[in-house]
Amino acid sequence: MAHRYFADTFAPDLAAITGQNAHHLARVLRARVGDVVPLCDGQGREYDAVITAIAPERIELAPGPGRASRAEPATAVTLFAACPKQDKLELILQKAVELGAVRIVPFFSRYCVAAPKNEAVKQQRRARIAREAAEQAGRGVVPAVEEAIPFSALCARLSGPEFDAALLCYEKGGAPLRQLAPPLTGRCIALITGAEGGFAPEEAEALQAAGAQAVSLGPRILRCETAPLAALAALLTLTGELE
Questions:
Q1: How large is the angle between the packed helices 88-99 and 119-137, nearest 10 degrees?
Q2: Which of 222, 225, 220, 215 is nearest to 181 (CA)?
Q3: DSSP letter for each residue of 106-163
Q4: Residue 81 — very low, low, confident or very high, per pLDDT cuts 50/70/90?
Q5: What is the dihedral of CA 223, 193, 227, 90, to 10 degrees?
Q6: Which of 12, 94, 113, 139 has its CA 20 to 30 A from that of 48?
Q7: Side-chain half-sphere exposure of 231, counting CA atoms within 13 A
Q8: Which pLDDT value is given to residue 2?
Q9: Interatomic CA distance for residues 67 and 118, integer angstroms
């Protein structure tokens, strides 16, 4: 598949790619006026767009007829991942975007080794990683990566009307995912995974009181960067999104 780009500005008769992507397309790939580029409007539609003008840091294109992106899942999974140490969160969000998560929300829980620090700077880098992963994976939208939230805010989100179901990947066990997932096809789902030390008992109780269903990922103990990706892949497979 040819590398696709998300338009930085989009209208039916004129779109533009700017900044680093424009530089890469023009200088590295040596695009020329008249070339056709796979382009997304960021709203789930994609186009074959003809380059009409090339300038430093800006490429203008004329979009052809649009079509719905086949890469966007009908089952909308928001991944809530406890913040791990070092750069493991970047790996999680990159692969979660590739797999098909529609939103990634880091959170801080009791056993998180990482602590809030320079979150605004980190957020810019995380948004760039998500966009690059979405382009590479052929997504029709760039999944949102939210700023890290406290555990109390996570419980509040689950108690509201945002999700049809919430699944808590709990190291102390729960219902088999294969039993819970198929009826959730096409629904909005919150998928929650823990930190290096898992969840404190009172945290697991609070999440379940907020509406989360504990699920098991099997008898093996998965690392905090492995669990969210394994759970997301299993969930999207069981709901038919990876067929």
A1: 30
A2: 215
A3: EEE-TT-S----SHHHHHHHHHHHHHHHHHHHT-SS--EEPPPEEHHHHHHHHHSSS-
A4: very high
A5: -80
A6: 94
A7: 35
A8: 61
A9: 40
Model confidence at 122: pLDDT above 80: yes
Can you give the three-state secondary structure of 63-91, one letter per residue?
Answer: ECCCEECCCCCCCEEEEEEECCCCCHHHH
- Residue for token pair 């930085």: 8
Yes or no: say if 30 and 8 are a contact pair by the CB < 8 Å rule.
no
| SS3 state at 46 | strand
CATH number of 5-68: 2.40.240.20
pLDDT digits (tens, 9 = 90+) for 138-153: 999 999 999 999 999 9
Check pLDDT > 50 for residue 116. Answer: yes
Euclidean distance between CA atoms 5 and 22, whole angstroms: 9
Task: Give the pairing of strands 76-82 and 103-108.
Answer: parallel
* pLDDT tens track for 186-220: 999 999 999 998 999 999 999 999 999 999 988 88
Specify the 3-state DSSP secondary structure of 14. Answer: strand
| Domain boundaries defined on the chain | 5-68, 76-238
Mean pLDDT confidence for 38-46: 94
Class of the domain covering 76-238: alpha beta
Q: Which residues contact 11 (CB under 8 A, 6 or more apart)?
A: none
Q: Are 174 and 214 in contact (CB under 8 A)?
A: yes
